[in-house]
Hints:
This protein is an alpha+beta fold. Among the domains are: about 5-50, Helicase, Ruva Protein, domain 3; about 60-200 and about 280-290, Elongation factor Ts, dimerisation domain (Tetrahydropterin Synthase, Chain A, 2-Layer Sandwich), CATH 3.30.479. Helices cover about 45% and strands about 20% of the residues. The protein is built from 12 helices and 7 strands. It has helices at about 5-15, 20-30, 35-45, 45-50, 85-105, 110, 120-135, 180-195, 210-220, 225-245, 260-275, 300-305; strands at about 60-65, 70-80, 135-145, 150-155, 165, 165-175, 280-285. A 4-stranded antiparallel beta sheet has the order 3-2-1-5, with helices on one face. It has a 3-stranded antiparallel beta sheet with strand order 4-6-7, with helices on one face. The chain starts with 5 loop residues before the first helix and ends with a helix.
Amino acid sequence: MASITAGMVKDLREKTGAGMMDCKAALTETGGDLEGAVDWLRTKGLSKAAKKSGRIAAEGLVAALARGGKGVVVEVNSETDFVARNEAFQTLVRAIAAVALETGVTDVEQLRSQAYLGGGNVGVAIAHAIATIGENMTLRRVGALSVADGIVGTYVHGATAEGLGKIAVIVALESKGDQAQLAALARLIALHVAATSPLALESSALDPAIVERERNVLREKNAGKPPHVLEKIIESGLKSYYKEVSLVDQPSIHAEHANKTVGQAVKDAEASAGAPIRIAGVVRYAIGEGIERQETDFAGEVAAAAKGG
């Protein structure tokens, strides 16, 4: 059997636009024959998917799924928001999240190669959905959290179906406390995170580059003041900034936690839970964030389609 090299996989990807793991599988099946591998991808519906791969996919769904001390969030993009209401697409996203939760795989390419619940692998399932539904789709990212003792809670905002929506959050609470109390608290924190989008769990975990940028903004805004005064203003401004962007320092959005930070609310919950509680991690995905969307003339497209253009 011919040895499949990285160069061969690269050539096939450039020729077809199919995923790396799909190209490797095609070359393996055809003994390294490039043209045969192209045909193999076509028979699997992957070449049709490749034709659509240049289209911007910034819509779609994010999913949150948790079981006990494990949880995942997954983002699968499509070209239009209409697809998010398609039951077949919803089933695909939910199943991919289930595969991620079961396997613990968070690398996108590795997840694409994992066995899919209905047969084949995740990459093939996505390609089949592209061919069936008629839009480009991409498995963009996967996040996971786990705790040995405690629970992972979820919240989905703008839900179109159970566990699927526009914003998905998972929150891991590490504790030996009452599971029902932990689950309720985790959901409240997840809802808070969906609304406020903190940059870090606590100020000490903030990216130093972000802190330095904020420091420079404060310095520019207060230029001309004496150095000893300027430093006090900067430090005071940073303390206010930390309260805005670090989760435990943010004022809770929930009425039951009025006038308390999230950190204080967690501390108070320890009494009813019967054990110390630590926020071990948070992952928040919003659909399409960071993707540069292409401006389109929807009315023009409809008119062109009506004329056969």
